[in-house]
Fold this protein.
Amino acid sequence: MTPAFSPPPLDGPRLSPRSGGPARQLVVILHGYGADGFDLIDLGRAWQGQLPDAAFVAPNAPDPLPFEAFGGRQWFPLSERSPQEYVIGAEAAQASLDRFLDAELSRLALDDSSLALAGFSQGAMMTFQAGLRRKKPPAALLAYSGLLPGAAQLKTIQTTTPVLIVHGEDDDVVPAYHLGAARTALTQAGVSVDTHCLAGLGHSIDERGMVLGGRFLEKAF
């Protein structure tokens, strides 16, 4: 009998706590479509001053892009870019991300109360997908320039985790109206959510977004 295929575990760049002591918090940073963990690990460096006891890790998404020769990764394929595709893809990718989160927390002797997820674009989708459904609520969820997959499925969600959404007003990849749609769905589901739509910003994270994210994480921990 052929053994069942088991995908390799996720991995990516890590930062140890700046304090030099054991980690008291874990911030997991999820990159966007076509990037990898090295694309966003500098967010951790920007936040180390506010979170000196936090460990940071930016795992590479599980799948390579089918047409990319330079190492770009994806959490799930995008072809139609439809709401149904986002739901199916995020649900399929959740299991590998949850395994990674469980393993990192175990390695650091922490639990979900010391966990924050921060994601950009497709990584923000995975932040919502996994973070809102953890058995024990994480400390914080931070979504940059993303959308909320499966908003209609939030009726059964029960979480005390606060959410911050930061989006560029001029985003032409994930239009800014997705921020309002996510805020409405999360609020209706009883989730505490704060949002910032930044003028003059496209599909990226600027210094304003980094500052907002750092303050949010510091307060959540």
Notes: The longest strand covers residues 25-30. The beta strands are 14-15, 25-30, 54-57, 63-64, 73-74, 115-120, 140-144, 163-168, 193-198. The helical segments are 41-47, 83-107, 122-131, 177-188, 207-220. DSSP finds five helices and nine strands in the chain.
